[in-house]
Amino acid sequence: MRATEVPTIAGAYLFEPTPYADERGFFCRTFDADVVRSVGLDPHAFLQDSVSRSVRGVLRGLHLRSGAGEAKLVRCSYGKIFDVVVDLRPDSPTYRNVATFELSGETQVTLYIPAGCAHGFQALTGTADTSYRIDRPHDPAEDVTIAFDDPELAVPWPLPVTLMSQRDREAPSLAEVLKHREN
Questions:
Q1: Strand, coil or helix: what is 179?
Q2: How much is the pTM?
Q3: Sorting pLDDT into bands at 50, 70 and 90, what band is 19?
């Protein structure tokens, strides 16, 4: 497994496993504490694992947490997703940058998203399972959502949106979220 820094989002990393494939399928390590530690992250900081299953066209996001934020490791364990990260850390050299990735069950690449960044994804396949490992217990009172179609962000979602939560449909613009954060 190797770690590669994401140049457009300061502190973000891609963890790329080395799958072993044969006639049975494949095997690969999806988390390696030594590799995580090698880029300055504490592998023991991750406290909760979750998984979501989405069908083609489903969009989840853009989500972040208020307060101390939430760092996370995200991996598409089955299927394929279009993944989006928005740097919303005012002191970051990549503040307001948007980065997109294609994560898939074929590659099992894991994306590390630093606290203070918004995250969302769209399922590109009939079924897409997305695994999350987060560094704080989830507190719904800290949930923040930004409109997925905010023109300032101009995220190039690859498919028409087939389904999203009511919270995501009613999400405020980036400008509204940032104004609220400043108050």
A1: helix
A2: 0.94
A3: confident
**Which of the following is catalytic: 13, 112, 119, 132?**
132
Which candidate, 66, 46, 53, places its Cα nearest to that of 121? 53
Q: Per-residue confidence at 78, pLDDT binned at 50, 70, 90?
A: very high
Residue 183 reports pLDDT greater than 90:
no
The span from the CA of 168 to the CA of 57, in Å, is 14
CATH code for the domain in which residue 119 is found: 2.60.120.10
Residues 6+ apart with CB under 8 A from 27: 19, 20
Beta pairing class for 117-123 and 110-113: unpaired
- Catalytic residue of the set 44, 63, 138, 180: 63
What strands lie across the sheet with 48-55, from one edge to the other?
Answer: 2-5, 13-16, 110-113, 72-78, 127-134, 48-55
By CB neighbour count within 10 A (0-12 exposed, 13-18 middle, 19+ buried), where does 40 fall? exposed
Q: Is 180 a catalytic residue?
A: no
Q: Quick check: is 132 catalytic?
A: yes
Overall number of domains in the chain:
1
Cα angle at 117 between 115 and 120, to 5 degrees?
120
Instruction: At 40, list the tokens.
Output: 């300055």
Radius of gyration of the chain (CA): 16
Per-residue tokens: 34: 């030594």
Q: Which domain covers residue 12, as residue numbers?
A: 2-182
